[in-house]
Amino acid sequence: MGLRKKITISICIIVLISLFTLCMSIYRKSAEILNEETNNFTEIQILRAQEKIDLLVDRIKMESKLLARDKYVIDFLNNKITTEDLNLILTYQMISKNQKDNYYKDLFIVDLEGVIIASTMGDAMYVDLSEREYIQKSFLTHETQTSDILIALTDGKNIVNTVTPIYNENQEIMGLAGIALRAENFVNFIKDYNVGQTGYFVIIDSNGYILSHRDTSLIGHIYSQEISGLENIHTTDDGLQKTYDDVYLYTYKKMKSNNWILLTLMPKEELNIKSVGLLKYVFIYGFIISISAIFFSIFLSKQISRPIIHITNYIDKAKNNNQMLDDAIYHTRIDLENDKFDFSLDNPSFHQVESFLESVRKKMDKNFNLFEEDAKSLIKKSKDLSSSLEMKSYLTVKFLSTLSHDIRTSLTLIKGYAKGLISNFELDEDTKNRFAQEIYDSAENLQNIVNDVLDSTYEAHCTNESKKEYVKSYGFCEYLFHFSKEYIENFDRIFIGNFDCGTELLYIDRIKIIRVWQNILSNAVKYTEKFTNIYVTICKEDDRMLFKIKDEGMGIRENDKEYICEMFYKSNLSDKNSYGLGLFISKSILNTHHSDIYFESELGKGSTFWFYLDLKPENEENN
After folding, report:
1. How far apart are CA 582 and CA 567, in angstroms?
2. CA 619, CA 386: separation in Å to the nearest integer?
3. What's the per-residue H, E or C state across 120-173?
4. What pairs with residue 398 in β-bridges?
């Protein structure tokens, strides 16, 4: 086998092995990211579904409380109206409610003996519920109670009951007001929440019975007998948990409503769809790159073998045409036989060959060293890119989860209190005012979310449209200095300031620079304890103004310093009052002013943030 062919095959093998290893590494890392995104999506869906079910249960509890305070119900228990009249009133109320949501099965009143004495269903009259656990618990605790899934004694249908104590003027219990819901209608509240293409939700009550299932015929059955692969998922842990078998990935979480379990079933084959698709593309592009690598190997082998062949031909030619080289080789052989290793460097032909070989060797070593350095740099950049993509994906999902939860909570409160105001039930003025105030507070919270997140994010991406103008440095800096003093002292921190400013000009967007300063200042107050020192420095340094804030707060961890100015990044992920945008927006604004944000921090000892703005001569404004 020829030299060139050996070199070509060796390079091809090395390149193909390297490409295969790199492709599989990229595939495994990408597959992990895709599966993590799927898991995060499932987690978000199950949390959304839980909120909707909890909201339904809370709504029914509120309506049962309103029913318990109904004037006609209290008059009935005081023997002021007849059973027939109350039954007609309850029937009218249920019909009006079912016009919008057809999930009410019955409205009923229970006396102190646990017997139904008023109901919209004639068959339910005088049914004894005294042995029901939720009835006994409501009488004992004087609180609203929601049952697990029940079998109605009238028609054998699956129901869920909610009861609330009814009090007289002396705050004595006169009975219970109850609402019965059709259990199968719980499916309608979560059917729009997809879990992949074929995944679905199941609700299991505290006794292990299926309360909601897409196959309504399974409602009321024991879950362990109907769902293969699960033995016991009841848990005291409030966090999200997962398990799996050969077919499904099970994700479940305990709800606050009666310790019910909200369960999702995701076919495992769906989790692998994206990974398989990704693997296909990896093989396709890997094949294309491999073909290219083979042609590259052929080209490279020609470049490597060409000088070697040239050297060989040169030596052969020198040997055949130069008797002096023959003599040198002959004498060398004799010297080797006599154990005397003595080449004669005085021979010009041999010296030229040796010099040429040495130069070729050095050139090849240099090229291989460059190739090795480039390869290491490429691997490092790939790792950094993968780590950055993983961090961006995690932060974005976390941000969307927090934002959607805040918006949904405010909307839920607005709808709940608005429903109370427009209902037909009589409310006193204090209650109406409280409902109206809650609606106003929730709406104001939504407005703050819009201002803090949506407007701020738009501003961060439109910083090139800054409206810069010449501003007198002394007046502007003096305003920031006095504002800082008032802000810090209002939050019971100790202000220590240093102010020194001339008469030069600043060419800035005044509003946005104030926003940068407020972001840094609010962080200094937010992450420090009361009665600690905060140092504010605004002074001139050469032809620049220095703006610096130093605190004695909690500091920043080393692992967080690299990402502290990234969008959505929060050092404390449990901080619900922050969306991780302040420093990102500040950095974006400063970049448009040919500046940047700088900081140094030590964990447990505090942080210092500062930035610079260029000063302009006072006469430049007229120019």
Report:
1. 9
2. 51
3. CCHHHCCCECCCCHHHHHHHHHCCCEECCCEECCCCCCEEEEEEEEEECCCCCE
4. none
Q: Are 537 and 575 in contact (CB under 8 A)?
A: no
Note the pTM of the prediction, 2 decimals: 0.41
CB atoms within 10 A of CB 59: 16
Tell whether the model's pLDDT for residue 457 goes beyond 60: no
Rounded Cα distance between 601 and 557, Å, is 8
Q: Which amino acid is at 98?
A: N
SS3 554: coil
Q: Kindly report the backbone phi and psi dihedral angles of residue 163, in degrees, each rounded to the nearest multiple of 5, phi listed first.
A: -130, 150
pLDDT for 405: 58
Tell me the pLDDT tens digit for each residue of 23-69: 777 767 766 776 676 667 777 777 777 777 788 888 888 989 999 99
Q: What is the largest CA-CA distance in the chain?
A: 139
Selected residue with higher pLDDT from 215 and 519: 519
In which residue ranges of the chain is CATH 3.30.450.20 found? 1-300
155: pLDDT strictly greater than 80:
no
- Name which of 433, 404, 401 is nearest 417 in CA terms: 433
Residue 216: name the closest of 162, 269, 149 by CA. 149
With a cut of 50, say whether residue 337 has pLDDT above it.
no
CATH 3.30.70.920 at 463-620, yes or no: no
Rounding to the nearest 10 degrees, give the CA dihedral for residues 544, 549, 550, 556: -100
End-to-end alpha-carbon separation of the chain, Å? Answer: 79
Q: Where in the chain is the domain with CATH 3.30.565.10?
A: 463-620
pLDDT for residue 347 is more than 50: no
| Three-state SS at 499 | strand
591: Cβ contacts below 8 Å, ≥ 6 apart: 463
Which tokens hold the place of 7? 């070199």
Task: Tell me which fold the domain 1-300 belongs to.
Answer: Beta-Lactamase (3.30.450)
CA-based R_g, the chain, Å: 39
Q: Are 438 and 444 in contact (CB under 8 A)?
A: no
Task: Specify the pairing of strand 494-500 against strand 505-508.
Answer: unpaired
Measure the CA–CA gap between 605 and 608, rounded to whole angstroms: 10
DSSP, collapsed to helix, strand or coil, labels residue 510 as helix
Q: How far is CA 204 from CA 221, 350, 365, 469, in A?
A: 10, 91, 70, 64
State the burial class of residue 442 (Cβ atoms within 10 Å of its Cβ: 0-12, 13-18, 19+): buried
Residues 10 and 261 sit within 8 Å (Cβ to Cβ):
no
- Average pLDDT over all residues of the chain: 77
pLDDT of 126 above 70 = yes
Task: Say yes or no to pLDDT of 547 above 60.
Answer: yes
Q: Helices 429-449 and 348-422 sit at what angle, rounded to 10 degrees? A: 160
Is residue 206 within 8 A of residue 134, CB to CB? The reply is no
Sign of CA dihedral 86, 144, 47, 234: negative
Strand segments, DSSP code E, in 360-478 are 469-472
Cα–Cα distances (Å) from 57 to 163, 430, 436, 611, in that order, read 12, 25, 23, 52
Q: Which residues contact 195 (CB under 8 A, 6 or more apart)?
A: 42, 45, 201, 264, 265, 266
Instruction: Give the DSSP H or E segment for 414.
Output: helix 348-422
What share of the chain has pLDDT > 90, as a percent? 27
The distance of Cα 84 from the centroid of its chain, to the nearest Å, equals 56
Please, are residues 152 and 169 in contact by the beta-carbon 8 Å criterion? no
Structure tokens at 574: 């449990």
